[in-house]
Amino acid sequence: MISIRDLHKYYGEIKAVAGISFDVAAGEIFGLLGPNGAGKTTLLRVLATLTRPTRGRAQVDNLDVVGAPFEVRNRIGIVFQDPSLDVKLTARENLDFHARMYGLTKPERRERIAEVLHLVDLQDRANSVVETFSGGMKRRLEIARGLLHFPKVLFLDEPTLGLDPQTRRFIWDYIHDLSKRTRVTIILTTHYMDEANSLCDRIGIIDKGRLVALDTPSKLKNNLGQDMIQVEIEKRENVETGIFSAVNGIKEIIPHDGTITFSIENGEAMIAPILKALSDRQITVKAVSLHKPNLEDVFLHYTGRTIREVEESELQLQKRKSRRIGRGRKPA
Ligand code: ATP
Fold first, then answer.
1. How far away, in angstroms, is 230 Cα from ligand 1 center?
2. Is 204 in the pocket of ligand 1 (CB under 6 A)?
3. How far is the CA of 234 from the centre of ligand 1 (A)?
4. Which of 48, 177, 203, 211 could pair with 31 as two cysteines, CB 3.0-4.6 Å apart?
5. Which pTM value belongs to this model?
């Protein structure tokens, strides 16, 4: 349903998408996972014909996004990251306005609006003004609007951003249910590991505009090995990985930001030898944890950093930039 080959999108010097290729099958829920600024939204915008690629090719239902943008638009629905409902209108009026833009006739509109409202369980609130809706209800209405013209592909950009944990789970259930009932192909972006894990058939992990991993959540995790041990150390000093040579079953050691993460077999038995190797070098340990591999570990494995670390360093970079810009400005 989606085919992407060597896709690039540059904004001046910024390589937002830097050579990405993958395919998505019909009916799949496919997640693009990555930290802020990784290039997820840009990739969606190219697929949704909202921006042209700098180089490379993208097709939706065998139609080229540059060569046949109108045909592509007929086949896709999109729910943007930022809410775009008219809060002074009712749910039905919001949907009706959208359906008119797609050129649906009055009987078609009546039938389809009833159907999509039912899909997201908002049929009882059809005539309520949207400003009276909760965050989760607004999100569901936006999803309904994206489905109005029964698209083959639905793009969801950060579908649960800013929602509380309970509402996020409800939205996941709706998306899951929707995919089963309508067989629509769903491409969503997220930087929530749990969202990608529980919702997606396959996940593409994006970092700095590149696809660093692509597989089912369970395969991505299983490839890492049996167990993960994380050791937080007192000082953010560089630890030579050679000091753990006596510890058995280590598949990988990743030191990052005051923490050492081990991918290891038989982790429970290996905690003591790891701690001994550290205490022999007078390295103080603040915390130790043992867990089964998760998607955060997968991201760490492929990028050498956790998503949180990437986002924090991005934030600091932006703050430094805005301080520099601030210093350069003349007083008004
Ligand atoms: P988030 O999770 O925060 O939405 P993202 O993974 O969706 O992030 P993008 O929004 O695709 O990331 O941004 C990728 C890079 O491209 C960033 O460095 C961003 O600043 C830059 N970028 C995106 N849109 C534009 C634009 N219109 N003009 C200039 N730079 C842009």
1. 31
2. no
3. 35
4. 203
5. 0.86
